[in-house]
Structures are given as C-alpha cells and as structure tokens.
Amino acid sequence: MDRETALRELSQGGSSERQVAARELGRWNDTQVLTALVDALAGDRDYQVRESVADTLEEIGDSRAVRLMLPLLKSDDPRTRNMARGALGRIGAAAPELLFEASKDADPRMRIFVANIMGGTGDHEMAPRLIEMSRDADENVRDAAVVALGVLGAPEAVGALSRFLKGNHSWLQFSALDALSKIGSSEAAAAVLAALPGAGPDMLPAFVDALGRMGAPECLEPLVRLLAGAPELRPTAVRLFLGPLLEPLRDCRDPAIVKSVLDAIAQEILGGKLGEAKAARGVHTLGLLGGPENGPAILKALESADPTMRREAVIAAGRLKLRGAVPLLQMMEKGADATLALEIRRSLEGIGK
Amino acid sequence: MSPAAKKVLVVDDSDTVRRMMDFVLRPVGVEVIEASSGFAALDLLKNNPVDMAIIDLNMPGMDGIELIRSIRAAAERKDLPILMLTTESREGDMKLAYDAGANMYLIKPSPPPVIRFKVLSLLGLEDPTAPKA
C-alpha cells in the first residue's frame, strides 16, 4: 500500500481497511502522516482502529507525536482525551521534556493526566518532578503524583510520601500508604512503622495492610504488638500473615511472635471468617509451626466441607500429634478415597494409633 | 437484604483506587469485585452478577461513559445502580454521565464516609457507621 492510499483508507475505508492503513502508515513518519494518525486516534469511532493507530504511534515513538497528542488531553470528549492518555502512556517517555512542560499547565485536569502518564512511563527521571507535584495546590494533582510515585516504585520519594501519613486527608493518606507499600524498601517500611502510633482508628487497617504487603520481616513484630491492642484488626492482619508475610513468619526466630501469629490464625479459622484458600493455608501453617494448643482449630478444619482444608487438617493433626483428633480421623478413614485414607493412616500412626 | 449479601463492581484503572474502595466498603460487609478497565468489567459482568457498579470516568481504552452505555445496552443490566466516581467536575462530563445512565456522580476526593453512605443508599441499605440522630 502506498502512502497516499494509506492516508485515504485511514479516513475513508471500512474498519478493517482503516486498521490496515493505520499500521501501514508506520512506514512513514512525516508531519502529515503523524497528524493523520493523531486525528484518527482522537476521532475514529472504532476502538480497534484507534488501537492500531496507537500501536503505530508507539512504534514511531516520536516526540512530534507526543506534542500533537498532549492538547487532546483537554478535549471535552472523554473518548478523545482517554485515547490520547492511553497512547501517551505508551510513548510519553520519548519526550520527557514535553511531559515536564505539560505538568505545569494551568489546568489541574491536564496536570492530573500528565502525572498519570509520567508514572506509567516507568522512567525514574520523572520522580523529581512528581515529587514536586506532590506539593501542588490542587489535591487531586497531589494525589495523582503520589500514586504515580508508587507506580514508579521510586525509593527517593519515601521522604515526600511520609508527609502524607499524618493528618486527616484519607485519600492522600491512603494513596501514600499504597505508594510506600509498592516501593517496599526498608526505608518505606520504617516510614510507615514510624507513623503507625499516630494513625487514627479508621486508617489503622490501611496501615496494617500496607505494612503487610511490603512483606518485610521487620513488620511482623509491630503488627503483632498492634494486634494485641486492636483485636478488630485481626482479620486484616491474618490475611497478610497468610499472604505476603508467610515467608517472614516461617523464618521468624522469635517464638513469642510466632505463637501470637498462630493464635490469631487459629482464631480466624475457628471463627469461620477466612476464605477457603486462606483457611487451608492457615491450617497448613498451624501444622508446620503450631502446637497442641492449636488443636481446636485443626479439629474444626477436619469437619470442613472443603476437601483441601480437610486434607491439610488431617496432615496437621498427625504433625501435631493431636490425640483428640483420633475418633474423627478413624471415622473419616472409613469413607475416604485412597489418597486421603493414606494420609489419615499416616497421621494416625504419627499420633500412635 | 444485609450488606453482607451485596457485591459492588469497582472499575478503575488505578489499583490504588480499587483498593481504597475495598477499604471503605469491606467494613460494612460489602464485597468488592475489581476490574481495571471497561473491557474487563464487561467480561466480568457476563458471568458474575453484581448489585451495583462504581465506575471511573477517565480510563484508557474504554472510558467510563462508554462503559455505562455498554452496561445499559444489556436489558438485564438496565437497572443496575451505577455511581460515577471521578476527578472531573465539569458540568459537561456530569451531563454525559447522567445521559449515559449513571444514577449518581461523585467528585474525588469525596470523603470515605460520604462514598460509603452514597453506595449504601444506592443499594437501598442503611449505613451502620453513620451517626444516629
């Protein structure tokens, strides 16, 4: 397809023809072609055509395309501005100076979009400007910059983000916690831990969640101490103990901390509050790390309707040598399939029956 | 029906916002189902009934207005309560949202208690965390 035909097909062809034309035009990158592509990105009603255009613009990767698309972010048509945003997210890194310039636009809507785009580039060169934008006069711009710093995973932003952990602005506090959890450095964990004592009761679950998602071993002890004074956080904490904090838990050398965590897990199993997968993992963890004091939770799990949980409970009962589980295990053995019957037999032998 | 039986679909390309909605609604027993795009939301809705949707306006690919139109195009979803939650405060965007079929339009950053109250009111429920008169 020659250039003129491709340009004509892009504006006048059927959907398939326009998609093909959009891809063909990648062979040229003069201003007329770029303008036609950007116009199609903004105006074509077919999503597949717009995606083909965006693919071509990404391959051209030219700062001229960035310059042509930036004004589309101010369009009154949501479709236009969001297609531009999507495409700029893919090629914005080609013209960082244009993004920096746009990040100072008088319109806060533009600054929000640009912050989103800057975060999505994955380019850490954007971090200093985003840190500045986290002090913008408009709170949605500040929030967009904070979120973008988390998307970038920018460790240099920890100090700036920590400022938002105090105060009563829930959105910014939450976004800052989320960003710090994504950065996940030991400095980020330390910042969240330092702010924890001052956290309001409504925000405590968010702090706990952020700490847990960082999966940092140093979060275990503060979370356990927090849990002692705020048992209502147990469901959130246990989801984390059985998720990102499971490995630190297994490696933990402090028996008091391990016991506190296992007790919390057992309480959640007894309360029937965990989803099936987490509950099964909880039972497995009790079997590996727990003791006879966790027996009630294992016994309850033996009666679960979930076969995975029952199997884990059978194994755990054997590991923990739970004599109280013997009658139930013997009853289960009668109706069990061959695999489960074998596990039950092994557990009974482990208990000495 | 109790809040614990309600499922709310949250459609936002920002996982931070999706997580925030879970943080706001989980304490009142609402289950949050997440979708990161309009396309993912429509896919999810084929096989997963929900009681309401919270939709962002600005999303790459399919924007929130187009998503609402697509949702309303299906007869079985013409009455699904939809709350648009967005930073866009212009009247033109609000009109587009309501014309597309949104039931409510909230501008970020709405305080979490307000979001919770609006969601529960669209679900026809009382907010157990609201102060009693």
Task: Characterise the protein shown here.
The complex is a heterodimer of chains A (353) and B (133). Chain A has 353 residues and is mostly helical. In chain A, 70% of the residues lie in helices and 0% in strands. The longest helix of chain A is centred in the last third of the chain and has 16 residues, at 255-270. The mean pLDDT of chain A is 92. The longest helix of chain B has 11 residues, at 15-25. The relative contact order of chain B is 0.18. In chain B, 39% of the residues lie in helices and 17% in strands. With 133 residues, chain B is an alpha/beta fold. At the A-B interface, helix 6, helix 8, helix 10, helix 12 and helix 14 of A face helix 1, helix 3 and helix 4 of B.
Summarize the topology.
The complex is a heterodimer of chains A (353) and B (133).
Chain A: H1 3-12, H2 15-24, H3 31-43, H4 47-60, H5 63-69, H6 78-91, H7 96-102, H8 108-120, H9 127-133, H10 139-152, H11 158-162, H12 170-183, H13 186-195, H14 204-214, H15 220-229, H16 234-241, H17 246-251, H18 255-270, H19 276-289, H20 295-302, H21 307-319, H22 326-335, H23 338-351
Helix pairs in contact in A: 1-2, 2-4, 3-4, 3-5, 3-6, 4-6, 5-6, 6-8, 7-8, 8-10, 9-10, 10-12, 12-13, 12-14, 14-16, 16-18, 18-19, 18-20, 19-21, 20-21, 21-23, 22-23
Chain B: E1 7-11, H1 15-25, E2 31-35, H2 38-47, E3 52-55, H3 64-73, E4 82-86, H4 91-100, E5 104-107, H5 112-122
Parallel strand pairs in B: 1-2, 1-3, 3-4, 4-5
Short description:
Chain A has helices spanning 3-12, 15-24, 31-43, 47-60, 63-69, 78-91, 96-102, 108-120, 127-133, 139-152, 158-162, 170-183, 186-195, 204-214, 220-229, 234-241, 246-251, 255-270, 276-289, 295-302, 307-319, 326-335, 338-351. Chain A is 70% helix and 0% strand.
